[in-house]
Design brief:
Layout (H helix, E strand, L loop, with lengths): L14 E3 L7 E7 L13 E9 L1 E6 L2 E6 L3 E5 L4 E5 L3 E9 L4
Antiparallel strand pairs: 1-2, 2-8, 3-6, 3-8, 4-5, 4-7
Length: 101
């Protein structure tokens, strides 16, 4: 089966599941300039955050990363995470079950 969804057609702010109930969990995050997601974790998940448009300052533990449209960050979900939009932004986030190495 093939599912096709336009990100702009999804209802929900600041985030919405793209394919509810499916793995890996996929979320569209939309933030206004200056809006932030409070510090949180996703234990047992590996995360890919793709900035579709805008600019996001991604705080991971003690480090901060500046991401712009077209850039991708990959990181473990067991650390403290807090994205902040420095301009109106949309990101696609994939939370996959972590793979034991």
């Amino acid at each position: 089966m093939t599912d096709i969804t336009a990100l702009d057609d999804l209802d929900g702010q600041p985030h919405v599941n793209v394919f509810p109930g499916a793995e890996p969990k996929t979320v569209r995050l939309s933030l206004e300039a200056g809006e932030t997601v409070p510090e949180h974790t996703h234990p047992g998940r590996d995360i890919v955050l793709y900035v579709v448009d805008g600019e996001i300052e991604l705080a991971l533990e003690e480090d901060t990363h500046e991401l712009t449209g077209g850039e991708v960050a990959r990181f473990a979900g067991d650390q403290d995470i807090s994205p902040t939009a420095t301009s109106e932004s949309t990101a696609l986030i994939v939370l996959a079950p972590a793979v034991e190495e």
